[in-house]
Amino acid sequence: MPNSRRWGHLKREVEMLRRHFLPAAFDPLGSYANSIRVQARTRAFLVLSHAEIEIYLEEWAKDIARTAETLWTTSKRVTTPLAFLLATVADRVGIPQTLQGSSKDSPQRLEDAATSLFEKYYKQIRDNHGIKEKNVLSLLAPLGVPATALGTTLLPDLDTLGTIRGKHAHGSARSVQSVLDPETEYNRIKDLLRELVVLDQWFVRCKRSTR
User: Fold this and answer.
1) pTM score > 0.85 for this model?
2) Do residues 50 and 165 touch, judged by C-beta distance below 8 A?
3) pLDDT tens, position by position, 113-160
């Protein structure tokens, strides 16, 4: 199955960042003439690549949710993503004690719950800040993403990238003691892109089946 346009865009953005921030040729020994500048630009590559991956995950989550929302709004179809959202995000639809007065019947209560859950989920996406395991599960578990789509190494590697990114994004150059090797960080992001392929293909299948 071919990768999505969204994954292709992510790959192109990473390559653009590589050309813009990293040395044209990597030194096997990690020795560069202007080491301070190389360190600063490697940190920029790391932080911006992290941001691109975060956007990629958030946009896919939003895309699938919006597809499910459109089908619910237009034809009242409960798709698989909507079923998971109802189970994980929606407020419980209680049993009315009476239908007298202003009490709503069951179909209307479900309609209200669905409207509310999409608003809540989109806010959850907007409030996301990161790509660590807890962030990814907060974004994707409500859509029913299976463990097989995440593999065994993707979440730990995203955790590692998130930790390194936080260390270098929130600390001054002087306070950060570790030295970044530009080739190592580039390979880290390339490996993550390869790991994201399986998840990307699940996104594509999910989007196609939600119709």
Assistant:
1) yes
2) yes
3) 888 999 999 999 999 999 999 999 999 999 999 999 999 999 999 999
In a domain, 141, yes or no: yes
Encoding tokens for residue 125? Answer: 């996406």
Q: Is residue 156 part of a domain?
A: yes
Look up residue 43 and give its two tokens.
Answer: 């940190």
Number of domains present in the structure of the chain: 1
- Is 99 contained in some domain? no
Supply φ then ψ for residue 140, to 5 degrees: -105, -30
State how far the alpha carbon of 41 is from the alpha carbons of 5, 18, 21, 48, 142, in Å. Answer: 28, 10, 5, 10, 37
Identify whether 135 is part of a domain: yes
Query: What is the residue type of 143?
Result: L
Rounded Cα distance, 42 and 53, in Å: 17
Tokens representing 144 are 């029913």
Which amino acid type is present at position 181? D
DSSP state of 145: -
